[in-house]
Specification:
This protein has helices spanning about 1-35, 65-70, 90-95, 100-110, 140-160, 170-175, 185-205, 290-300, 340-350; strands spanning about 50-55, 80, 115-120, 165, 210, 215, 215-220, 225, 240-245, 275-280, 315-320. By secondary structure, it is an alpha/beta fold.
Length: about 350
Protein backbone atom coordinates (compact mmCIF):
# COMPACT_ATOMS: atom_id res chain seq x y z
CA UNK A 1 0.00 0.00 0.00
CA UNK A 2 2.82 2.33 1.00
CA UNK A 3 4.58 1.47 -2.24
CA UNK A 4 1.49 2.40 -4.25
CA UNK A 5 1.18 5.73 -2.46
CA UNK A 6 4.86 6.41 -3.17
CA UNK A 7 4.32 5.73 -6.87
CA UNK A 8 1.36 8.12 -6.97
CA UNK A 9 3.37 10.77 -5.14
CA UNK A 10 6.27 10.41 -7.56
CA UNK A 11 3.90 10.63 -10.54
CA UNK A 12 2.42 13.85 -9.17
CA UNK A 13 5.90 15.27 -8.67
CA UNK A 14 6.78 14.35 -12.24
CA UNK A 15 3.68 16.06 -13.60
CA UNK A 16 4.36 19.16 -11.49
CA UNK A 17 7.95 19.16 -12.75
CA UNK A 18 6.84 18.92 -16.37
CA UNK A 19 4.38 21.80 -15.89
CA UNK A 20 7.04 23.97 -14.24
CA UNK A 21 9.55 23.24 -17.00
CA UNK A 22 6.91 23.93 -19.67
CA UNK A 23 6.02 27.27 -18.07
CA UNK A 24 9.70 28.17 -17.78
CA UNK A 25 10.44 27.25 -21.39
CA UNK A 26 7.36 29.08 -22.62
CA UNK A 27 8.38 32.15 -20.64
CA UNK A 28 11.91 31.98 -22.07
CA UNK A 29 10.54 31.55 -25.59
CA UNK A 30 8.20 34.54 -25.23
CA UNK A 31 11.01 36.60 -23.73
CA UNK A 32 13.27 35.63 -26.62
CA UNK A 33 10.59 36.60 -29.15
CA UNK A 34 10.03 39.94 -27.41
CA UNK A 35 13.75 40.63 -27.44
CA UNK A 36 13.79 40.08 -31.22
CA UNK A 37 10.86 42.42 -31.89
CA UNK A 38 11.86 45.54 -33.83
CA UNK A 39 10.32 48.92 -33.04
CA UNK A 40 10.24 51.37 -35.97
CA UNK A 41 12.69 54.25 -35.65
CA UNK A 42 10.02 56.79 -36.59
CA UNK A 43 7.41 57.96 -34.08
CA UNK A 44 4.85 60.11 -35.83
CA UNK A 45 1.88 62.34 -35.18
CA UNK A 46 -0.37 63.13 -38.14
CA UNK A 47 -0.27 66.88 -38.92
CA UNK A 48 -3.38 69.01 -38.39
CA UNK A 49 -4.05 68.92 -42.14
CA UNK A 50 -4.82 65.21 -41.69
CA UNK A 51 -2.18 63.61 -43.93
CA UNK A 52 1.57 63.43 -44.45
CA UNK A 53 3.27 65.18 -47.36
CA UNK A 54 6.43 63.97 -49.05
CA UNK A 55 8.71 64.45 -52.03
CA UNK A 56 11.90 63.02 -53.54
CA UNK A 57 14.48 65.79 -52.95
CA UNK A 58 16.04 65.91 -56.43
CA UNK A 59 18.51 68.85 -56.22
CA UNK A 60 18.48 71.89 -58.45
CA UNK A 61 21.47 72.45 -60.69
CA UNK A 62 24.61 72.70 -58.55
CA UNK A 63 22.77 72.08 -55.26
CA UNK A 64 24.25 69.56 -52.77
CA UNK A 65 22.00 66.67 -51.77
CA UNK A 66 22.20 67.73 -48.12
CA UNK A 67 20.74 71.14 -48.97
CA UNK A 68 18.02 69.64 -51.19
CA UNK A 69 16.81 67.36 -48.39
CA UNK A 70 16.80 70.26 -45.94
CA UNK A 71 14.78 72.32 -48.43
CA UNK A 72 12.30 69.47 -48.97
CA UNK A 73 11.84 69.07 -45.22
CA UNK A 74 10.50 72.61 -44.90
CA UNK A 75 7.13 71.48 -46.27
CA UNK A 76 7.31 67.67 -46.22
CA UNK A 77 7.25 64.88 -43.65
CA UNK A 78 8.54 61.97 -45.72
CA UNK A 79 10.90 61.04 -48.50
CA UNK A 80 11.01 57.84 -50.60
CA UNK A 81 14.08 55.59 -50.33
CA UNK A 82 15.19 53.30 -53.14
CA UNK A 83 18.89 52.82 -52.52
CA UNK A 84 21.53 54.17 -54.91
CA UNK A 85 19.47 52.75 -56.90
CA UNK A 86 20.04 49.22 -55.76
CA UNK A 87 18.69 45.73 -56.59
CA UNK A 88 16.62 44.28 -53.78
CA UNK A 89 19.28 41.76 -52.75
CA UNK A 90 21.79 44.55 -51.97
CA UNK A 91 19.43 47.11 -50.44
CA UNK A 92 19.94 46.06 -46.81
CA UNK A 93 23.70 46.47 -47.22
CA UNK A 94 23.18 49.99 -48.58
CA UNK A 95 20.90 50.88 -45.70
CA UNK A 96 23.34 49.49 -43.13
CA UNK A 97 26.32 51.28 -44.60
CA UNK A 98 27.55 54.80 -45.26
CA UNK A 99 24.85 55.42 -47.89
CA UNK A 100 22.08 54.66 -45.39
CA UNK A 101 23.72 56.73 -42.66
CA UNK A 102 24.00 59.68 -45.05
CA UNK A 103 20.64 59.62 -46.80
CA UNK A 104 18.27 57.87 -44.40
CA UNK A 105 19.62 58.89 -41.00
CA UNK A 106 21.20 62.28 -41.71
CA UNK A 107 19.32 63.70 -44.70
CA UNK A 108 15.87 62.28 -43.89
CA UNK A 109 15.47 61.49 -40.19
CA UNK A 110 17.68 64.26 -38.80
CA UNK A 111 15.70 66.72 -40.94
CA UNK A 112 12.52 65.60 -39.18
CA UNK A 113 11.21 63.43 -42.03
CA UNK A 114 10.58 59.70 -42.17
CA UNK A 115 11.64 57.31 -44.95
CA UNK A 116 9.18 55.45 -47.16
CA UNK A 117 11.24 52.36 -47.94
CA UNK A 118 10.66 50.82 -51.37
CA UNK A 119 11.73 47.34 -52.46
CA UNK A 120 11.11 46.26 -56.04
CA UNK A 121 11.34 43.01 -58.00
CA UNK A 122 10.56 44.59 -61.39
CA UNK A 123 13.44 45.24 -63.74
CA UNK A 124 13.85 46.74 -67.21
CA UNK A 125 10.92 45.99 -69.55
CA UNK A 126 8.98 44.43 -66.66
CA UNK A 127 11.32 41.50 -66.13
CA UNK A 128 12.27 39.80 -62.87
CA UNK A 129 15.25 41.17 -60.97
CA UNK A 130 17.37 38.19 -59.95
CA UNK A 131 20.40 37.69 -57.70
CA UNK A 132 23.57 36.30 -59.33
CA UNK A 133 23.11 32.66 -60.22
CA UNK A 134 19.31 32.92 -60.50
CA UNK A 135 19.11 34.54 -63.91
CA UNK A 136 16.54 32.05 -65.23
CA UNK A 137 14.28 32.22 -62.15
CA UNK A 138 10.53 32.81 -62.38
CA UNK A 139 8.03 34.08 -59.82
CA UNK A 140 7.21 30.52 -58.80
CA UNK A 141 10.85 29.61 -58.17
CA UNK A 142 11.20 28.72 -54.48
CA UNK A 143 14.82 29.86 -54.22
CA UNK A 144 14.01 33.25 -55.75
CA UNK A 145 10.98 33.68 -53.48
CA UNK A 146 13.07 32.93 -50.40
CA UNK A 147 15.75 35.38 -51.56
CA UNK A 148 13.19 38.16 -51.98
CA UNK A 149 11.56 37.42 -48.64
CA UNK A 150 14.91 37.37 -46.84
CA UNK A 151 15.92 40.62 -48.53
CA UNK A 152 12.79 42.33 -47.17
CA UNK A 153 13.47 41.00 -43.66
CA UNK A 154 17.07 42.24 -43.85
CA UNK A 155 15.86 45.68 -44.97
CA UNK A 156 13.49 45.90 -42.00
CA UNK A 157 16.34 45.03 -39.64
CA UNK A 158 18.66 47.54 -41.31
CA UNK A 159 16.31 50.54 -41.45
CA UNK A 160 13.49 49.91 -38.92
CA UNK A 161 10.90 51.60 -41.17
CA UNK A 162 7.39 52.59 -40.19
CA UNK A 163 6.30 52.52 -43.86
CA UNK A 164 7.41 49.67 -46.11
CA UNK A 165 6.44 49.02 -49.74
CA UNK A 166 7.44 45.51 -50.77
CA UNK A 167 6.77 45.97 -54.48
CA UNK A 168 6.48 49.12 -56.60
CA UNK A 169 3.80 49.47 -59.28
CA UNK A 170 3.26 45.74 -58.95
CA UNK A 171 0.21 45.73 -61.22
CA UNK A 172 2.46 46.49 -64.18
CA UNK A 173 3.52 42.84 -63.80
CA UNK A 174 -0.14 41.78 -63.78
CA UNK A 175 -0.80 43.82 -66.91
CA UNK A 176 2.03 42.03 -68.75
CA UNK A 177 1.82 38.46 -67.46
CA UNK A 178 -1.76 38.03 -66.22
CA UNK A 179 -2.66 35.48 -63.57
CA UNK A 180 -3.16 32.18 -65.40
CA UNK A 181 -2.68 29.15 -63.17
CA UNK A 182 -0.12 27.45 -65.44
CA UNK A 183 2.03 30.56 -65.89
CA UNK A 184 5.14 30.43 -63.64
CA UNK A 185 5.32 34.22 -63.86
CA UNK A 186 1.61 34.71 -63.18
CA UNK A 187 0.76 37.52 -60.82
CA UNK A 188 -0.92 35.12 -58.39
CA UNK A 189 2.58 33.97 -57.40
CA UNK A 190 3.41 37.49 -56.25
CA UNK A 191 0.16 37.75 -54.29
CA UNK A 192 0.96 34.59 -52.32
CA UNK A 193 4.55 35.73 -51.75
CA UNK A 194 3.36 39.17 -50.67
CA UNK A 195 1.14 37.59 -47.99
CA UNK A 196 4.01 35.40 -46.75
CA UNK A 197 6.26 38.45 -46.47
CA UNK A 198 3.51 40.49 -44.81
CA UNK A 199 3.20 37.90 -42.06
CA UNK A 200 6.98 37.65 -41.62
CA UNK A 201 7.42 41.42 -41.34
CA UNK A 202 4.55 41.74 -38.87
CA UNK A 203 6.09 39.03 -36.69
CA UNK A 204 9.39 40.91 -36.69
CA UNK A 205 8.08 44.51 -36.56
CA UNK A 206 4.34 44.59 -35.73
CA UNK A 207 4.08 48.38 -35.98
CA UNK A 208 5.50 48.63 -39.50
CA UNK A 209 2.83 49.54 -42.06
CA UNK A 210 3.21 47.03 -44.89
CA UNK A 211 1.81 47.39 -48.41
CA UNK A 212 2.74 47.25 -52.07
CA UNK A 213 2.33 50.14 -54.47
CA UNK A 214 0.02 50.18 -57.48
CA UNK A 215 0.22 52.27 -60.65
CA UNK A 216 -3.05 54.13 -61.25
CA UNK A 217 -2.11 54.50 -64.90
CA UNK A 218 -0.16 52.42 -67.41
CA UNK A 219 1.81 55.43 -68.59
CA UNK A 220 3.54 53.70 -71.52
CA UNK A 221 0.13 52.84 -72.99
CA UNK A 222 -1.64 56.14 -72.19
CA UNK A 223 -4.47 54.48 -70.28
CA UNK A 224 -5.79 53.72 -66.84
CA UNK A 225 -4.62 50.54 -65.14
CA UNK A 226 -6.92 47.54 -64.69
CA UNK A 227 -8.13 47.97 -61.12
CA UNK A 228 -9.52 44.43 -60.92
CA UNK A 229 -6.07 43.37 -59.77
CA UNK A 230 -6.86 44.88 -56.36
CA UNK A 231 -9.44 42.17 -55.71
CA UNK A 232 -6.67 39.54 -55.67
CA UNK A 233 -5.35 40.81 -52.33
CA UNK A 234 -6.52 39.99 -48.82
CA UNK A 235 -7.68 43.34 -47.36
CA UNK A 236 -6.44 42.26 -43.92
CA UNK A 237 -2.91 42.12 -45.29
CA UNK A 238 -2.80 45.52 -46.99
CA UNK A 239 -2.23 48.22 -44.37
CA UNK A 240 -2.54 51.10 -46.84
CA UNK A 241 -3.74 51.48 -50.43
CA UNK A 242 -0.89 53.34 -52.13
CA UNK A 243 -0.63 54.53 -55.74
CA UNK A 244 1.66 56.25 -58.15
CA UNK A 245 -0.37 58.53 -60.39
CA UNK A 246 0.36 60.58 -63.52
CA UNK A 247 -3.15 61.06 -64.95
CA UNK A 248 -2.09 63.49 -67.69
CA UNK A 249 -0.66 60.39 -69.41
CA UNK A 250 -4.17 59.02 -69.95
CA UNK A 251 -5.64 59.76 -73.36
CA UNK A 252 -8.38 62.38 -72.99
CA UNK A 253 -7.06 63.89 -69.75
CA UNK A 254 -5.40 67.18 -70.66
CA UNK A 255 -6.36 69.30 -67.66
CA UNK A 256 -6.99 68.42 -64.01
CA UNK A 257 -10.67 69.22 -64.56
CA UNK A 258 -10.83 66.28 -67.01
CA UNK A 259 -10.19 63.83 -64.16
CA UNK A 260 -13.48 62.27 -62.94
CA UNK A 261 -14.46 62.95 -59.33
CA UNK A 262 -14.25 59.23 -58.46
CA UNK A 263 -10.91 58.64 -60.19
CA UNK A 264 -9.27 57.63 -56.90
CA UNK A 265 -12.26 56.88 -54.69
CA UNK A 266 -13.46 54.08 -57.00
CA UNK A 267 -10.41 52.06 -55.96
CA UNK A 268 -11.98 51.64 -52.53
CA UNK A 269 -14.67 49.40 -54.01
CA UNK A 270 -11.97 46.72 -54.12
CA UNK A 271 -10.37 47.37 -50.73
CA UNK A 272 -12.98 49.26 -48.67
CA UNK A 273 -12.18 51.49 -45.71
CA UNK A 274 -8.46 51.66 -46.43
CA UNK A 275 -6.38 54.75 -45.87
CA UNK A 276 -5.22 55.90 -49.30
CA UNK A 277 -1.95 57.46 -50.25
CA UNK A 278 0.32 58.45 -53.11
CA UNK A 279 4.00 57.61 -53.15
CA UNK A 280 4.34 59.58 -56.39
CA UNK A 281 2.10 62.16 -58.02
CA UNK A 282 2.97 64.14 -61.09
CA UNK A 283 1.59 66.73 -63.49
CA UNK A 284 3.89 68.67 -65.88
CA UNK A 285 4.05 72.44 -65.98
CA UNK A 286 4.18 72.61 -69.80
CA UNK A 287 1.66 74.56 -71.87
CA UNK A 288 0.12 71.54 -73.62
CA UNK A 289 -1.17 70.35 -70.23
CA UNK A 290 -2.15 73.78 -68.93
CA UNK A 291 1.18 75.15 -67.78
CA UNK A 292 2.06 76.05 -64.22
CA UNK A 293 -1.53 76.85 -63.34
CA UNK A 294 -2.74 73.37 -64.23
CA UNK A 295 0.09 71.78 -62.25
CA UNK A 296 -0.90 73.85 -59.23
CA UNK A 297 -4.58 73.04 -59.76
CA UNK A 298 -3.79 69.33 -59.86
CA UNK A 299 -2.20 69.48 -56.41
CA UNK A 300 -5.18 71.37 -55.03
CA UNK A 301 -7.67 68.94 -56.55
CA UNK A 302 -5.87 65.78 -55.41
CA UNK A 303 -5.89 67.11 -51.85
CA UNK A 304 -9.58 68.04 -52.12
CA UNK A 305 -12.02 67.26 -54.93
CA UNK A 306 -10.43 63.96 -55.91
CA UNK A 307 -9.91 62.50 -52.46
CA UNK A 308 -11.21 63.97 -49.21
CA UNK A 309 -14.31 65.47 -50.81
CA UNK A 310 -15.11 61.93 -52.05
CA UNK A 311 -14.77 60.47 -48.57
CA UNK A 312 -11.24 59.15 -49.14
CA UNK A 313 -9.13 58.93 -45.98
CA UNK A 314 -5.99 60.52 -47.43
CA UNK A 315 -2.88 59.47 -45.52
CA UNK A 316 0.22 59.96 -47.71
CA UNK A 317 0.48 62.75 -50.28
CA UNK A 318 3.77 62.35 -52.12
CA UNK A 319 4.93 64.42 -55.08
CA UNK A 320 7.32 62.85 -57.60
CA UNK A 321 10.33 65.14 -57.10
CA UNK A 322 11.29 68.58 -55.82
CA UNK A 323 13.18 70.05 -58.81
CA UNK A 324 12.88 69.24 -62.51
CA UNK A 325 15.25 66.38 -63.39
CA UNK A 326 16.69 68.22 -66.42
CA UNK A 327 15.73 70.77 -69.05
CA UNK A 328 13.34 68.27 -70.65
CA UNK A 329 11.49 67.45 -67.42
CA UNK A 330 8.67 69.61 -66.03
CA UNK A 331 7.26 67.51 -63.16
CA UNK A 332 9.25 69.17 -60.37
CA UNK A 333 7.73 71.78 -58.05
CA UNK A 334 10.76 73.96 -58.78
CA UNK A 335 12.73 74.52 -61.99
CA UNK A 336 16.30 73.29 -62.39
CA UNK A 337 17.62 76.83 -61.92
CA UNK A 338 15.81 77.16 -58.58
CA UNK A 339 12.85 79.21 -59.82
CA UNK A 340 9.77 78.26 -57.80
CA UNK A 341 6.65 77.35 -59.78
CA UNK A 342 3.04 78.09 -58.82
CA UNK A 343 2.80 74.44 -57.73
CA UNK A 344 5.45 75.01 -55.07
CA UNK A 345 3.47 77.86 -53.54
CA UNK A 346 0.34 75.68 -53.47
CA UNK A 347 2.36 72.84 -51.92
CA UNK A 348 3.68 75.23 -49.28
CA UNK A 349 0.23 76.60 -48.49
CA UNK A 350 -1.28 73.14 -48.06
CA UNK A 351 1.64 72.13 -45.87
CA UNK A 352 1.42 75.04 -43.41
CA UNK A 353 -2.38 74.97 -43.00
Amino acid sequence: MASKKLMVFLSVLTIIGIVIVSIFMSSRLNQSKEENIITPADSLQVPDRGFFMGVLPVPREGQPFEEAYSQAAEYSEFSPVWGRPTPFYNLADDLSGIWGQTFVEKNIRKNGMFPLIHISFIGLNVTLVTPPGMESATFSDLAWREAYKQAVIDVVKASRPLYLSIGNEVNRWYEKYGAEENNPNGFQHFVSLYEEIYDAVKELSPETKVFCTFAREIVSENREADLNVLSMFNPDKMDLLIFTSYPYAVQGINRPSDIPDDYYSETLSYLPDKQVGFSELGWPSIDVFGGEQAQADFITQVAGRLTREQGVNLHLFGWAWLHDLDENDHIGLIKRDGTKKLAYEVWKNISIK
